[in-house]
Every structure is written in C-alpha cells, then in structure tokens.
Write a structure and sequence with these properties.
It is a single chain. It is globular and about 30 Å long. Helix content is about 5%, strand content about 35%. The protein is built from one helix and five strands; from the N terminus they run H-E-E-E-E-E. A five-stranded antiparallel sheet has the order 3-2-1-4-5, with no helix packed on it.
Length: about 90
C-alpha cells in the first residue's frame, strides 16, 4: 500500500496523525535527527517557510527540497530542512 493511500483522509488531519515528535522535545529545527511533522504557516522567501508543530512551536524551515509546499501543507522535517511534502487529503 502506498503512502498516499495510507494517509488518505477526508478532513485536514491533526499533526499527530503523522507522529508525536515535536520541534522542541524530539528534534530541534537545527540539530534534530528525527523527522518532525510540521504544518506550513507562511512562505517567507524562496526556499524558506515558517512552520508549526503539533504543540504550537514554530521554526523557520528550509524548503528547497519541497518547492511546491504551500500554507496548510504538512512537511516532514529534520535538521531544519523539509525532506518531503505529505499528500493533501482529498477534498470532500
């Protein structure tokens, strides 16, 4: 089963859907070594976005590997870099 199939949902998911890691406790945005699910809040400039984890902690994240990321999208990040853009849930 593919990742999009496993994550398909009809509503905007809570970030806990993707795990319980946070920017503050499990992997800081600078030196963490675990993937932390974050939601894009705003695009700051090309290749950078302000993101928020499930606890409300925010960080500036490099998005060069995820150039299609937009506000509301969920990214998996490590060491301050977005590694992947998770699929959006289907619209209802």
């Amino acid at each position: 089963m593919s990742l999009p199939t496993l994550l398909a949902m009809s509503t905007v998911p809570d970030l806990t859907t993707y795990g319980t890691c946070t920017l503050d406790d499990d992997g800081c945005s600078v030196c963490g070594d675990v993937a932390v699910p974050v939601r894009v809040l705003t695009l700051l400039r090309p290749g950078w976005a302000r993101c928020e984890d499930r606890t409300g902690q925010t960080a500036e994240i490099a998005t060069a590997f995820t150039p299609d990321a937009r506000p509301g999208d969920v990214l998996l990040i490590t060491a301050g870099v977005a590694l992947t853009l998770l699929p959006r849930p289907p619209s209802s």
